């Protein structure tokens, strides 16, 4: 790469030691990044960021746990994540920065919370990237069952990293079209399914009987429904990545609310609608958890051509989420470096506004998935999903807690925001209680239990690193607040 690197002075942990009591006008430039994402890019990032392996592959496991009652689980989990998205959106409209919820945790909870949240989301991006690379190999089995998964992972890693090294607009354009493909395909599959259900065409109507003929609507009872919430909630993990795009989107005060408001429609159409069609077309107890249930159902119905097309879609969906995690993780690592919480080496951007060093470093780490698929092919998916869900719970909880502090600062300043998250503060505490319930339920699922035990160890490790960094900085005399550390000075009309 020949781009000239530019840098912004990093802030030390001590620089962020005190939350400010003022509001800050959103900047037009996020310290070296360029606002190269258009409104249509953000809309499709919001629509497609979580339509990936969790829905196309992981939904089979949640269906096996709850049967048709999994539709209620999707509705409950979707409602919780929508509330979290509205909290994130309210903060992002006033503070459209690439650090997103790590920035908000740092400012509204405390510096150690920002450190843990930022590094946790960076870790989430790395592990999700590894998951999607692994899933891409699984989806390629449809055509080439003998092709080693590590080859698919390597090709995908090189191609997507190359796209992200061009320009933020290149990322946005690729994400736009890949998201468009899976959105259109899901809508088409739902329409096709409805035709089969109601008998529109040459075949007789399938009807609705599959919802209750195989043990009833809730064949595994309340226990199965509760346990399914764990796997179902995992599928919504990518939604908050829209926050890290806030620093590079045009007109954030208008485009961020529009993108986030679309989340509720995505939940209804793509999750409840898509999974509902699967349950109508095929008995829930015959849905395979080890391959894409969407593809297998279409093949079982004798719609081979549609199954081939849909497998192209699920493969592109995995690559789309990997593309999103490559982008989001690089911006988060850069934000940590800017705030003295990661090596300043990663704070630099090129003249085209790319955090080149952060992107390359992250891609190298995600490339470990190539080696793991070579050594442990077929054994990674559910282990990675469990680890990711635990990390996502940290990010979601940080958003709910940061939003409480954000509203407190607004109240002290005698101001209000125009894009307000609903049901405050009941929604915040309700979401936190839901996440605590998920952690409890994970103890009853062997595939997720490892993450439950690893989660406190991970948080404790980050806290110890933070304390060590604080001691080091104080010994070197870094104990002053940065003059630009005040969060809010005036609130712009939104």
Overview of the molecule:
- The chain is mainly alpha-helical and 494 residues long.
- It has 17 helices and two strands.
- The protein has helices at 39-48, 53-56, 59-66, 70-94, 100-108, 111-140, 149-164, 168-198, 221-234, 252-281, 293-300, 304-338, 356-366, 368-375, 381-413, 426-442, 446-475; strands spanning 5-6, 349-350.
- The protein has a two-stranded antiparallel sheet.
- It is globular and about 75 Å long.
- The model is unreliable at 6-29 and 479-494 (pLDDT under 50).
- Belongs to the amino acid-polyamine-organocation (APC) superfamily. Amino acid transporter (AAT) (TC 2.A.3.1) family.
Percent strand: under 5%
The helix fraction, in percent, is: 55-70%
Number of domains: 1
Major beta sheet summary:
2 strands, antiparallel
CATH class descriptor name: Mainly Alpha
CATH architecture: Up-down Bundle
On the 0 to 100 scale, the average pLDDT is: 80
Number of strands: 2
- Treating each run of at least 4 consecutive H or I residues as one helix, how many helices? 17
Rg of Cα set: 22 Å
Helix-strand category: mainly alpha
CATH level-4 homologous superfamily? Amino acid/polyamine transporter I
Distance linking N and C termini: 39 Å
CATH topology description: Amino acid/polyamine transporter I
Subcellular location: Cell inner membrane
Pfam family, one: AA_permease
Main location: membrane
Protein name: Phenylalanine-specific permease
């Amino acid at each position: 790469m020949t781009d000239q690197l530019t840098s912004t002075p990093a802030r030390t942990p001590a620089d962020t030691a005190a939350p400010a009591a003022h509001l800050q006008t959103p900047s037009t430039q996020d310290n070296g990044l360029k606002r190269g994402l258009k409104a249509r890019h953000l809309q499709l990032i919001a629509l497609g960021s979580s339509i990936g392996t969790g829905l196309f592959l992981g939904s089979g496991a949640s269906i096996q746990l709850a049967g048709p009652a999994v539709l209620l689980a999707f509705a409950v989990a979707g409602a919780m994540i929508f509330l979290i998205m509205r909290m994130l959106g309210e903060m992002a409209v006033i503070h459209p920065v690439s650090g997103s919820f790590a920035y908000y945790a740092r400012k509204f909870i405390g510096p150690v919370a920002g450190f843990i949240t930022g590094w946790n989301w960076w870790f989430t991006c790395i592990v999700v990237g590894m998951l999607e690379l692994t899933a891409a190999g699984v989806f390629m089995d449809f055509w080439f069952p003998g092709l080693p998964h590590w080859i698919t992972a390597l090709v995908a890693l090189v191609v997507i990293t190359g796209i992200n090294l061009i320009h933020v607009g290149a990322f946005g354009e690729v994400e736009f079209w890949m998201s468009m493909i899976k959105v259109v395909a899901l809508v088409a599959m739902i329409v096709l399914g409805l035709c089969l259900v109601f008998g529109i065409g040459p075949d007789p109507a399938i009807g609705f009987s599959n919802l209750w003929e195989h043990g009833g609507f809730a064949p595994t009872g309340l226990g199965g429904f509760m346990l399914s919430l764990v796997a179902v909630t995992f599928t919504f993990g990518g939604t908050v990545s829209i926050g890290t795009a806030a620093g590079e989107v045009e007109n954030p005060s208008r485009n961020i609310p529009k993108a986030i408001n679309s989340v509720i429609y995505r939940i209804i159409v793509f999750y409840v609608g898509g999974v509902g069609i699967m349950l109508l077309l095929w008995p829930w107890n015959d849905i395979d958890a080890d391959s894409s249930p969407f593809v297998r159902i279409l093949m079982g119905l004798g719609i081979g051509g549609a199954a081939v097309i849909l497998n192209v879609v699920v493969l592109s969906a995995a690559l789309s989420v990997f593309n999103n995690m490559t982008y989001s993780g690089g911006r988060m690592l850069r934000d940590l470096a800017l705030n003295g919480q990661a090596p300043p080496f990663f704070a630099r951007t090129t003249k085209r506004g790319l955090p080149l060093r952060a992107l390359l470093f992250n891609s190298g780490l995600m490339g470990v998935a190539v080696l793991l698929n070579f050594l442990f092919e077929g054994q990674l998916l559910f282990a990675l999903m469990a680890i990711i869900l635990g990390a996502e719970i940290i990010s979601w909880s940080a958003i709910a807690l940061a939003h409480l502090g954000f509203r407190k600062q607004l109240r002290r300043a005698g101001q209000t925001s125009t894009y307000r998250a609903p049901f405050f503060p009941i929604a915040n505490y309700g979401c936190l209680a839901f996440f605590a319930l998920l952690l409890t339920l994970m103890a009853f699922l062997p595939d997720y239990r490892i993450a439950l035990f690893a989660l406190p160890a991970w948080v404790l490790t980050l806290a110890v690193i933070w304390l060590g960094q604080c001691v080091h900085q104080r010994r070197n005399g870094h104990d002053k607040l940065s003059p630009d550390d005040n969060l809010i000075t005036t609130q712009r009309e939104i």
